[in-house]
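DM from R.C. (forwarded with permission)

"hey, sorry to bug you on a friday — could you get me a structure for this? deadline for the figure draft is monday and I only need the backbone to look sensible"
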Amino acid sequence: MQIHASIQGVRQALKNCARIVFVPTMGNLHAGHIALMTQARAHGDTVVSSIFVNRLQFGLNEDFNSYPRTFKEDCEKLEAAGIDLLFAPRESDLYPEPQQYQVDPPDIQNQLDGAFRPGHFRGVATVVLKLFNIVQPQVAVFGKKDYQQLLILRNMTRQLALPIEIIGGETVRADDGLALSSRNTYLTPEERAEAPRLSRTLAEIREAIGKGDHNFAKLERDAMFTLDNKGWKTDYVAIRQQSDLQAPQPDSRELVILAASRLGIPRLIDNLEILI
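My reply, with the result:
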């Protein structure tokens, strides 16, 4: 596996490569990331990943400085997964000057997760577009666990006419249902035992909708009450259309149930798709 920190080094290494598939990450890799790498291999000839903790997508009181950085272990996992090239820039490599030009997504960036993390999706879209311009892939793979992020990046790619196919990878879960996340390492043993309640709560909503309960507002309220009654601090539980993350219409059939809730230090997110 080649490792490059400079933009010039990546471009030189990839200039004669056939179909490139790209999986950007912030490191602290787990089995969910490796599943995306495996999926990527099926869609191209050269698999490229990146590790970069992007300051632009962190808020003032978020965990940029304490975000887990495990570069040596990450490289070992990527090597074992058969990644061809890792782009691991320093902040001065990717942002040699203040990033004054940024990508400003439409109003969806201010809803759901964006309502609680102002500017987050602007930072995500900006760094991803910059990474796309450096790596110039034909395919990029992102996890469905970050459902709103996937939608925003897919729409950005389409509207800016980027010649890149965006593929969503299914969420990888622990045996007890907890969606894998780099921030799960913040959980205490007691919190880790409680954490699967989030996925169970979403599954209960999915089951209720499947049985014909379409009082979505009540389902959302009841779910938030259930979580908060067990010590969570819930930002939202929302039932939305998969296509645009807007409120369901009477004829909506493809829905997604999304949630974000804090348990101790980490803020956990999860979602479940449903067809009705």
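R.C.: lifesaver. Residues 2-169 form a domain with the Rossmann fold fold (CATH 3.40.50.620).
me: no worries. The two ends are 45 Å apart (CA to CA).
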